[in-house]
C-alpha cells in the first residue's frame, strides 16, 4: 500500500524511521542479553553482527526476550568466530543465563522431606532437576569470561567441561560439574528413580565409591536448590 | 466493566524495582508492560506479585497486533489471559496498530490504513480478543511517521468508529496525538474534540524528541510544555481520567518520575478547582475522592 510523502519528508524517509527503529530496538535488546559478547567484539562489530543475524533470523517472536535465541547457533558459522573461536559458546552461556532467569517456579525438595522418608520409600523416590536448570558443554572458560571485567586472554581447555546453570531463590548461579555429576544431572532432567541414579553411579565408580559420591552430591544439590521430587 | 479513576501512576520498570521494594513509595497505581511478565516464573513475576498486592495495576500490551493480517496468536492470548488472572488488573490495554506480518515481528506499533476495510478487519479481531479474554480491551492511539494514500478518513474518525462498534474503551495518549499532529500536519485539538467522552478511561503522558523534520516518540525526555497544555485541554473535555507518566528510555530515578506525577496532579487540581468550586476541599487529599478507598 503506497505511503504518503510530502515536502517535509518523502515516503521513503518516513519509512526509514521505522526501519531504523526496528534495528536499533533489537540491537539494544541484544546488547543487554549478550553483554560479554558485546564487550569481546566491540560496539561496531556487534552492530554488524546483529545486522547479519537479523537478515537470517528476523524476529518471529512477540517478545524481544526471545529474539537472540538463535544467535549462539548463528555464530558457529559467522566470520567473527575466526578471531574469537569461543564466541558461539560464550553466546550460548549468556543466552542460558537469560533462559533460566524466568523459567518456571517449583517447590524444591527439602532436606526434611528426604529425612522423613522410610527406607522402602527411597526405592520409588523420583528425582528431577528444577525447570530453571541447564547443562552446557564448553571448551572455553566462558564462565570466567563473563566475570572478568578487563580484557584478557583465555586458553581453550583440552576437553569440554560441563557447566551447569540454574536459578535458585530468584538468583541465577553457575558452576562447573565433574563428569559423573553431569551425567546424573542430565539423567534427572526428565525425572529418574533414585535407584537408577545409584546404579549409574555404581557403574562408573563401583558401589562403595558410588554411595559416598551420591551422598555428597545429594547434600550439595539440596543446598543449591537443584532438586524437586516428582 | 467498571473503570474507576485510579489517579496518577507510572510504568513499572526494572530499573525501579529496588527502589520500590525498599521504599514502597506513594503511587496511585502502576502500569505494567504485559509481555515483560508473560513468562513462566522467576524474578519478574515475583516482583509483579509484590507490586500487585500493594498497588492497583493496569496491564499494557505492545504485541497484540490487532491490525495485522496474520491470524491472532492463540498462544499469546492464552499467556495474556493467564497473566490477567494472576494480576487482576483494573483493565488491559494495547494499541490500535499492527506489529508484524507473515510470521515476522517488527517490535513496533505501526499505523493502519484508515479505511472501511481495515475497520471491519480490526473490529472482527477485537471481538475475538474480547470474547477470549472475557473482558473489554482498552485501545491506545499510536504515534506515527507514515500515513497511507489509501486512507479515506482521519485517524480520529477511524479510532472512534472502531471503539464504538467493537465496544472498546480508549487509552488516549496525549503525547502521541501531539507527535502525530506535527508529523502529519493536523490540529491536535481537533483530534481531542472528536473523541467520544464516554470511551476514554486512561491518559498517557510522555516525552518526545524533536528531530527537526519530524517528532519521534522516544519516551526518554521530560514531558514537553506543549503536551502539558494539550493535557489540560483533554482534562477539560474528558474530566477525571486515570493518568500515567511513561518513561521507557534514559529512565531517571524514581523520585524524578514522582515529580512528573506531581505536576500532572497539580494540573488536575487546578482543573478540579475550576470545575467544582462548590465541592468542599479535602485538605488531606485534595486531588480527588479516589484517595479515600
How would you describe the overall organization of this protein?
The complex is a heterodimer of chains A (230) and B (293). Chain A has 230 residues and is of the alpha+beta class. In chain A, 53% of the residues lie in helices and 13% in strands. Chain A has twelve helices and six strands. Chain A has helices at residues 11-33, 35-41, 43-56, 71-75, 80-83, 87-101, 111-115, 119-123, 142-147, 179-187, 194-205, 207-223; strands at 126-129, 133-138, 161-168, 171-177, 192-193, 227-229. In chain A, the strands form two sheets. Chain A has a three-stranded antiparallel beta sheet with strand order 5-1-6. In chain A, helix 1 crosses helix 3 and helix 2 packs antiparallel against helix 6. The N and C termini of chain A lie far apart (55 Å). The model of chain A has no long low-confidence stretch (mean pLDDT 93). Chain B is 40% helix and 17% strand. Chain B contains nine helices and twelve strands. In chain B, the strands form three sheets. In chain B, strands 1-2-3-4-7-8-9-12 form an eight-stranded parallel barrel, surrounded by four helices. In chain B, strand 10 (209-210) and strand 11 (215-216) form a beta hairpin. The two termini of chain B are 19 Å apart. The relative contact order of chain B is 0.14. Classes of the chains: A alpha+beta (230), B alpha/beta (293).
Amino acid at each position: 500500500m503506497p505511503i504518503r510523502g510530502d515536502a517535509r519528508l518523502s515516503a521513503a524517509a518516513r519509512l526509514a524511521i521505522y526501519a531504523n527503529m526496528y534495528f536499533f530496538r533489537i540491537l539494544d535488546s541484544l546488547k543487554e542479553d549478550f553483554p560479554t559478547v558485546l564487550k569481546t567484539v566491540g560496539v561496531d562489530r556487534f552492530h554488524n553482527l546483529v545486522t547479519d543475524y537479523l537478515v537470517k533470523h528476523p524476529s518471529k517472536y512477540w517478545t524481544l526476550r526471545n529474539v537472540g535465541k538463535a544467535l549462539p547457533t548463528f555464530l558457529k558459522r559467522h566470520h567473527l568466530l575466526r578471531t574469537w573461536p569461543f564466541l558461539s559458546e560464550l553466546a550460548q552461556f549468556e543466552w542460558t543465563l537469560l533462559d533460566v532467569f524466568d523459567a518456571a517456579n517449583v517447590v524444591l525438595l527439602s532436606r526434611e522431606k528426604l529425612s522423613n522418608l522410610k527406607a522402602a520409600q527411597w526405592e520409588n523416590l523420583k528425582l528431577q532437576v528444577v525447570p530453571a536448570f541447564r547443562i552446557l558443554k564448553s571448551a572455553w572458560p566462558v564462565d570466567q569470561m563473563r566475570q572478568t571485567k578487563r580484557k584478557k586472554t583465555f586458553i581453550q581447555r583440552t576437553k569440554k567441561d560441563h557447566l551447569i546453570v540454574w536459578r535458585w531463590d530468584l538468583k541465577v548461579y553457575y558452576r562447573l560439574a565433574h563428569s559423573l555429576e553431569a551425567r546424573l544431572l542430565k539423567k534427572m532432567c526428565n525425572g529418574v528413580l533414585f535407584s537408577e541414579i545409584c546404579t549409574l553411579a555404581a557403574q562408573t565408580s563401583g558401589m562403595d565409591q558410588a554411595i559416598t559420591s551420591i551422598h555428597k552430591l545429594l547434600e550439595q544439590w539440596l543446598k543449591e536448590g537443584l532438586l524437586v521430587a516428582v | 466493566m467498571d473503570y474507576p479513576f485510579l489517579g496518577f501512576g507510572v510504568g513499572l520498570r526494572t530499573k525501579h524495582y529496588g527502589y520500590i521494594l525498599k521504599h514502597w513509595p506513594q503511587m496511585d497505581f502502576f502500569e505494567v508492560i504485559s509481555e515483560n511478565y508473560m513468562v513462566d516464573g522467576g524474578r519478574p513475576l515475583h516482583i509483579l506479585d509484590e507490586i500487585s498486592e500493594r498497588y492497583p495495576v493496569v496491564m499494557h500490551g505492545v504485541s497484540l497486533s490487532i491490525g495485522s493480517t496474520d491470524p491472532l496468536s492463540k498462544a499469546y492470548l492464552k499467556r495474556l489471559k493467564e497473566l490477567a488472572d494472576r494480576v487482576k488488573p483494573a483493565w488491559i490495554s494495547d494499541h490500535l496498530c499492527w506489529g508484524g506480518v507473515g510470521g515476522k515481528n517488527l517490535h513496533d506499533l505501526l499505523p493502519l490504513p484508515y479505511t472501511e476495510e481495515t475497520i471491519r478487519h480490526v473490529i472482527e479481531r477485537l471481538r475475538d480478543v474480547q470474547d477470549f479474554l472475557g473482558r473489554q480491551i482498552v485501545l491506545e492511539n499510536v504515534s506515527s511517521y507514515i500515513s497511507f494514500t489509501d486512507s479515506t478518513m482521519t485517524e480520529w474518525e477511524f479510532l472512534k468508529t472502531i471503539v464504538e462498534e467493537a465496544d472498546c474503551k480508549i487509552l488516549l495518549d496525549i503525547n502521541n496525538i501531539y507527535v502525530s499532529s506535527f508529523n502529519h500536519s493536523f490540529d491536535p485539538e481537533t483530534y481531542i474534540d472528536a473523541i467520544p467522552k464516554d470511551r476514554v478511561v486512561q491518559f498517557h503522558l510522555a516525552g518526545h524528541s524533536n528531530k527537526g523534520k519530524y517528532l519521534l516518540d522516544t519516551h526518554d525526555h521530560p514531558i514537553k510544555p506543549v503536551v502539558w497544555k494539550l493535557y489540560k485541554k483533554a482534562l477539560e473535555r474528558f474530566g477525571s481520567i486515570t493518568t500515567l507518566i511513561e518513561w521507557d528510555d534514559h529512565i531517571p530515578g524514581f523520585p524524578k518520575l514522582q515529580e512528573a506525577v506531581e505536576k500532572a496532579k497539580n494540573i488536575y487540581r487546578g482543573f478540579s478547582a475550576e470545575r467544582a468550586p462548590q465541592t468542599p476541599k479535602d485538605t488531606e487529599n485534595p486531588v480527588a475522592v479516589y484517595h479515600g478507598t
